[in-house]
Design goal:
By secondary structure, this protein is an alpha/beta fold. It is built from 12 helices and 18 strands. 27% of the residues lie in helices and 29% in strands.
Amino acid sequence: MVSAVVGLDTNQTMAYQAFTFLLALVIVSMAWGMVFRGDFKVLRRLPRFGTVNDQLVYRVEVENRTKKRQKGLHLFENLEDCRPSFQEFVQTPEPEEKARNPFDRAVGYHRWLWLITRKQVASVKDHPLPILPPNEQGEVKVDILPSQRGHLRLTGLTIACPDPLGLFRSFDTITSPQSVLVLPKRYHLPPIHLPGTRRYQPGGVALASSVGDSEEFLSMRDYRPGDPLRRIHWKSWAKTGKPIVKEYQDEFFVRHALILDTFQKEAYSEIFEEAVSVAASFAYSMETQESLLDLMFVGTEAYCFTSGRGLAQTEKMLEILASVKACRDKPFSTLTPMVIERASLLSGCICILLSWDEEREKLINLLKALGIPVLVLVITDDNIKQTFDPDQIKGQLEEFLVLKVGNIEEGLAGL
């Protein structure tokens, strides 16, 4: 374009010759790109999970089904469209700290960009492919950096082929929908020893492979009228000639509650995301081989998920936290009945709160009145004015900690 402008007067300059030459190169490159016909087959080998801010690395097999040797190819991953719908755009206000000025807020351009960033679960880049001989396949290692928890949906792959001059690239898009669950980021926690004693669990804990109660085996004894038939030890009866039954004792063990505060007016906030990450850190770090951990929160309804002692693995709890959403239409008091209902079973409680007010203080006081040790973590942000005095609350609660967005890991180190 520059040579075209400079070379308008052919009597004053020779730039028009450069324009003619460059235009011929562009036309040849475009024509070459139009005749490219690719025929490829791809196969991803995705891992089961990814983690926020950790590289998700997997391999992609590409088969060249053409009769030509393909070289200089590049591979692109196609993600799900991250543009917000009109309803999302209208109903989702831009966070106070993101609003540049009243004009930007009225026009909505920065809010549009912010929503796109919010829905963009990961960032991708192109990856060069090895030389592919005819009817043979090659393998390339692909890495994606997830930036948001939730489902990372891959719609397909695009193979780019440059022309010999390197001015244009032709694209062959292959539809291949797949998804991988991105788990919340996790912070390193110091060893945590919550005070509390082993509690009696009525009927024991039903293990995944058992039917009925699963009390701990104690000994063998003679049959007594009224003993259930399923407790008869048939081998001992065959040896002794009289009915022998297995005797059990009720189970006592440690059971902690991990309470996640999901109550906020916004659909998204940095505070809520950090609260989920802190909950995931506790769920991942706490030893549950000989104890139970109950994750409690409110979404569309009140939920309680238990892991440990054969009931569920830590991965399952992380999967749940990867999909949890803010509760915008219910008060915090919705969570209180579920916690109090299970209070008699709990040895201790970890409460991860988004703020501190009368409702949240009431729940903590109820747990303390029931003799349950409580660790309270309140997530705050410097952009939001605090309505409570942390020093005053620490005088009433020994285990009370304020974690600030941007310094979560440093705050957790003080536990």
